[in-house]
Amino acid sequence: MSLSIRSNVAKVSREIMALARQVADMGPVARSFGAHMVRASVRRMARTAKWQPSSPGSAPARQSGELGNSLSWRERSGGDVVEWGSHLAYARIQDEGGTIRPRRARALTIPIDDRARGKRAKDFAGLFMIPIDSGDPDTVGLLAIPGTSDDDFQPLFVLRTRVDMPARPYLYIDDDDEAELHSILERHLSRS
Length: 192
Fold this sequence. Notes:
Shape: elongated
Distance between the termini: 11 Å
Oligomer: single chain
Structural class: alpha+beta
Number of helices: 5
Number of strands: 10
Number of domains: 2
């Protein structure tokens, strides 16, 4: 932004006062920043084939759209602070990664069949456990349903005592965001 000073002291005084009011009220800038960062975070989420994970280190795969739709922002301290993120329980571990352990059971049930996606083990009648020794101490068995013949079964879930989730960051400011945020601030300050 440039400010040229000429001999009109009253005009310069008005311009300085207008600029001071704009700097004092950063609410509009905060609202623009928040809206931009939510849009940018949603755009980062990869579109993948249904139920296919994104690669570690890349943004989370967009499958149901629930995570992207849950993103919101808020301003605090009169616009001096902007926060954006999600209220969903799994949002943080998607962004930062970490270890998931069961809270009320002995093992996590991980769907391995399309029929089990989005469902719980209790949704299936006749489900039974098959203990397995896979060489992985965290994998303890399978949950399956009877197949078409007496000695046949169809595994629906793998049972694990823990899952290590790689980070899939999506809540960050990259160079393009920084440039856009700078432009938003410049536009705000130039309105005098």
